[in-house]
User: What shape does this take?
Amino acid sequence: MTGEEIKDLILEIIEDIDDEADLAGLDPAGPLREQLDLDSMDFLDIVMELRKRHQLQIPEEDYPNLATLNSCVIYLEPLLKDK
Amino acid sequence: MRLPVLIIGGGLSGLAAAVRISRFGQRVLLVEQHTRPGGLNSWFFRNKTLFETGLHAITNFAEPENKHAPLNRLLRQLKVKRSEIEFCPQLGSKILFENCATLCFSNDFNLFETEINEKFPGAIDKVRNLLTFLQKFDAFAPAPFRSARAFLDEIFAEPLLTEMLLCPLMYYGSSNENDMDLAQFAIMFRAIFLEGMFRPQGSIKDFIDLLLRHIQENGGEIRTSCGVQNIAQHKGYATAVLENGEEIECDYILSTIGSQETEALLQRNNGARDDTPRLSFVENIFQLPYEALPAGAQGTTIIFFNRGEKFHYQRPQNSIDPRSGVICFPSGFKGVAKRELVEIRTTHLAATEKWERLAMVPEAYQQEKKRCSGLSCSTAESLIGDFAHAVTFRDMFTPLTIKRYTGKIDGAIYGHPNKIKDGNIGLSNIFLAGTDQGFLGIVGSMLSGVSIVNQHILPRL
Assistant: This one.
């Protein structure tokens, strides 16, 4: 998966969690939670969807790596490179 | 059989937990000892009619745009669309303290503020202080019991207002006599007064069927008439032996059946009994033609009443205490489909041990049921107008009825007075959700199932 594909994947997952999420004006460097008004329960859904769709096991201590769209790409690129 | 998660108990917390786990493709089995799911909120057929066992109203009403409201968070977590449920908001409810005061409230908090301002001049600023306090207060942080009554007495210095505010919140969710935990008060105040009440169109059966459909579509499994004999923790896994002798091996067990009830399955504490007193209730159903609803039922959803000099929320001396209670009109919600026959439901505090003694002589038990049904009916009549003559069918659940169908100790619907808020019962792979975790009501219990799964199980599967 390329960086762009990973971004799309995350956005698709977020849209699936909250179909009213405003994704158009999203700053890729800003925290997802604040921008999308997600709470910690919603945030767990991103982790669980990545596992369901790509069998990725993300340990709890790595959750902060998913804070922004850009950090998602940096963290997930090596894990998804063959997918 | 080996699977990731076993859920014990098919009440609303267990059902919500099963939807949540199965949503991410994880295998889950839910076992329920009764023939039907729903727990306290189930249904039965009598007189060619479906009757709900426990539903008065669902608290925590929220409009769709209020994303962080518990109701909307819950539905998102379960991936249940709001359009799958038709919401019927309450018409309006009241707290009626006979010969003292009446406070009306609805899903618009302004009405309640106006009412308090009229009946308790000067108290409105104190109510606003309370709201400011509640906004900042973290009701979910682990904390020792703090008396809501003492807290309110200090703010208001107006015992009648304190009791009137406590009455609905206690009846809809306090497992403590004459008091409630401040955190519980904060949650219930928001759920009932700030957010409000609704019921889903149709019956609780439709609501439960919706959850069952989601579990099945997600690939989860549910077995009813399936009790559990015992459970045990091992290194890295847990086991459960079902009543049919089958052994289930799993990574995690989530028990929703109560803390002591779970201890009994674990066979810990050498079987020592915890005798902390529990509160129990009777519930009456009076079925009657729509046209026969008395004047006091018109435009009304629920009446929380007290006729005594003081409000006593405690185990009564007699089999029931008719001095206070709840009167509910399930037809009193906006948009509810009109039916020819409707119900009036009443709830009062009850003494389980009295009913247990009566049950030793079946005729005496039946006779007392009849007497209490009559007492409750005449109590309601004196508050809302006559309707006894029009009743076509009546039924009453005692604490023993509740105990028999739900397995709850003493038939105490709100469980043990001490709650285990983090669901941690000292084991690495067996957790507690539901009544004894402490979130009450339908939305509360479902959030209990979801949040314990999120906290302890999902991230580790």
Observations:
- The first strand of chain B starts at residue 2 and ends at 8.
- Chain B has three domains: 2-83+202-274+418-460, 91-195, 277-409.
- Residues 91-195 of chain B form one domain.
- Chain B touches chain A through 13 residues (CB under 8 Å).
